[in-house]
Amino acid sequence: MTQFQPSPVHVGVNRRTFLRDTAAMALPLLSAVNGSLGMADPGSDSSSYPRLIMREKEPENLEFPFASLDSFITPNERFYVRNHFAVPKLEAKTWRLIVEGAVERPLELALDALTKMPSHTQIALLECAGNGRGFLTPKAQGVQWELGAVGNAEWTGVPLVAVLDRAGVQKGAVEIILEGADEGEVKSDPKSPGKIRFARSLPLEKARKPEVLLAYRMNGKELTPAHGFPVRVIVPGWYGMASVKWLTRIVVTDRPFQGFFQTLHYTCFDRYRGLPTLVPITEMEVKAEIARPARNEVVPAKTTYRIHGAAWAGESEATKVEVSTDGGTTWAEARLLDKAVPLSWRFWEYDWQTPAQTGAVTVMARATDKRGRVQAMKHDPDRRNYKISHVLPMTVEVR
Ligand SMILES: Nc1nc2c(c(=O)[nH]1)N[C@H]1C(S)=C(S)[C@@H](COP(=O)(O)O)O[C@H]1N2
Ligand SMILES: [Mo]
């Protein structure tokens, strides 16, 4: 099972970091909501970070400490966890997948029947649509994620399209509803109509893409209960809510699905001829995140400091990352490391000649993708508390 330390404040605490963080508290913080000050010593490796940071205990919501980013593939025990309800206890032996609705042949598949079908292995990044929400001011509703509700893994499973073809999608079908086995009642506004299950739909067009998987392996291992054992959906390029865990039912439908997590949550305003229209969230935006320096990190003056991080762009590809070390006045191009891997993140770095003058400095990273999408400087309120992909300033202390 996942291990973690109880609080982000206790990250890598030793006497030195404690003293430094105490000093850092005197610095003007970027916003009152992100006051977590813990970070490991500059130059230390990822072992000085917790495996995951707890954001919520029940249901369990765990964040990857993004400052510890050091591997292209996120190890399973360090992959963020986003749960709306308690983790359902499913067994491989009794698990069944029902495929019904607008199909020629309704199906009920056992796990061995599914795993006997031809498999496909696919690297894909998942990012929660609420990643970065903890930086919004005023404070937005929802889990207060900072940088780490994101991870990159290699998934193995059966393409959803293969199961759909086996059932035979009827003419006139438009969407595929994917339902998880987890259920509960949402008691905060907007409330759910009693007990509901987590469910999301995909338009037929995306559902038929070969990269959309019914996955039963994550980085070569069986899925853990937290990540959807025994079978979950992986929808590469789209925000995480589409990748339904603990999948037990697929409903093919001839009308758009209007479920709780499809309408009241995980939607943004889209402007149609000036009319704001709520639409379900789909593809990820272009985004770069800085791993190091971490927020409030103490950076030595007059030295070369390696700023590094990752960038991603949904179904597109991050083609440029720029860095600013003067609060956004000037920008310089960072180096992209390695070739772009489709539907995945891309690491980048930039050698910063730190100033002689000590004090607070704001560093930023901004990504551009193949389609020419560029990160905005401010969060668009039409996106509500989702798709937080604007440039995130990181204030550090040069000393
Ligand atoms: N059944 C079910 N599937 C789910 C969720 C859930 O709560 N229940 N959360 C979704 C959200 S919002 C995200 S971001 C991803 C997170 O996947 P992970 O926990 O494996 O990182 O799972 C998605 N699939
Ligand atoms: Mo999410």
Provide key terms for this protein.
binds the ligand Nc1nc2c(c(=O)[nH]1)N[C@H]1C(S)=C(S)[C@@H](COP(=O)(O)O)O[C@H]1N2, 35% strand, binds molybdenum atom, 399 residues, 5-stranded mixed beta sheet, mainly beta
Describe the structure.
This protein is mainly β and 399 residues long. 8% of the residues lie in helices and 35% in strands. The chain contains five helices and 24 strands. The chain has helices at 15-24, 111-115, 160-167, 204-207, 260-263, and strands at 53-56, 61-63, 81-82, 96-101, 107-110, 120-127, 150-159, 175-185, 195-203, 213-218, 221-222, 232-234, 247-253, 267-272, 275-280, 287-292, 298-299, 304-312, 318-324, 332-333, 335-336, 346-353, 359-369, 394-398. The strands form six sheets. A five-stranded mixed β-sheet has the order 5-4-13-8-9. Strands 6, 7, 10, 11 and 12 form a five-stranded antiparallel β-sheet that branches. Strand 4 (96-101) and strand 5 form a beta hairpin. It is globular, with a radius of gyration of 22 Å. The protein binds the ligand Nc1nc2c(c(=O)[nH]1)N[C@H]1C(S)=C(S)[C@@H](COP(=O)(O)O)O[C@H]1N2 and molybdenum atom. The site of the ligand Nc1nc2c(c(=O)[nH]1)N[C@H]1C(S)=C(S)[C@@H](COP(=O)(O)O)O[C@H]1N2 has 18 residues, from strand 3 and strand 8. Molybdenum atom binds at residues 82, 128-130, 240-241.
